[in-house]
């Protein structure tokens, strides 16, 4: 992707913000404050990939989409409504970074309406793409991979397993209950929830492919422990 100064700044900002939180969960030692994993940053990168896939199919303004992607979770780690905070930040700061003035209100709108799981009356193509990409990033092998690494953090492990329910040992057998919740159901392929979650049919088709891929893998993994 060609270098765009405002985009480089947004990416650097998000990396710094997200790394600061990731240090609490995935830092190898107090002497080396560099996280070996950063889930939120990985999520945003996947949102960008999925948003660009949808953009190539559906259209929309690429600059608005990219700016929205790299701002949408900027305030995820702060109290309050991260949608509104992100939208306000875009309005107040994007022009200073050299982003086209006439597109700033569209970016702010995308960020303000991106959160949730129940589709609503989103008005613009770019906002629908951010919405769909943000949800789609939680489906499939890459999210499955991310979840496995997330569970290497004691805090995250206890969140998924339930405090006191595990023996604290990292093993496939202990991970399996949480991983099983990552798979979908073959019934979900035609489940009305897909219509509630996504705006575009193209997104639903990709989600189904990812659900099926993870379902096959996890069911095979479960079979290892069923005997």
Overall geometry? globular
Query: Low-confidence segments, ≥5 residues, pLDDT <50?
Result: 185-190
The level-1 CATH class of the largest domain:
Mainly Alpha
Query: Which architecture of the largest domain does the CATH hierarchy give at level 2?
Result: Orthogonal Bundle
Assigned CATH superfamily of the largest domain: Hypothetical protein af1432
Helix content: 55-70%
What portion of residues belong to β-strands? under 5%
Structure characterization notes:
With 227 residues, the chain is mainly α. The protein has 11 helices and 2 strands, in the order H-E-E-H-H-H-H-H-H-H-H-H-H. The protein folds into 2 domains: 5-135, Hypothetical protein af1432 (Orthogonal Bundle); 141-224, no CATH class. The protein has helices at residues 5-22, 39-58, 62-71, 82-93, 104-112, 125-136, 141-150, 154-161, 172-180, 193-197, 201-224, and strands at residues 27-29, 32-35. Strands 1-2 form a two-stranded antiparallel sheet. A hairpin with a 2-residue loop joins strand 1 (27-29) and strand 2. The longest helix is centred in the C-terminal third of the chain and has 24 residues, at 201-224.
Task: Explain the layout of strands and helices.
Layout: H1 5-22, E1 27-29, E2 32-35, H2 39-58, H3 62-71, H4 82-93, H5 104-112, H6 125-136, H7 141-150, H8 154-161, H9 172-180, H10 193-197, H11 201-224
Antiparallel strand pairs: 1-2
Helix pairs in contact: 1-3, 2-3, 2-6, 2-7, 3-5, 3-6, 4-5, 5-6
Briefly say what this structure is:
This protein is mainly α and 227 residues long.
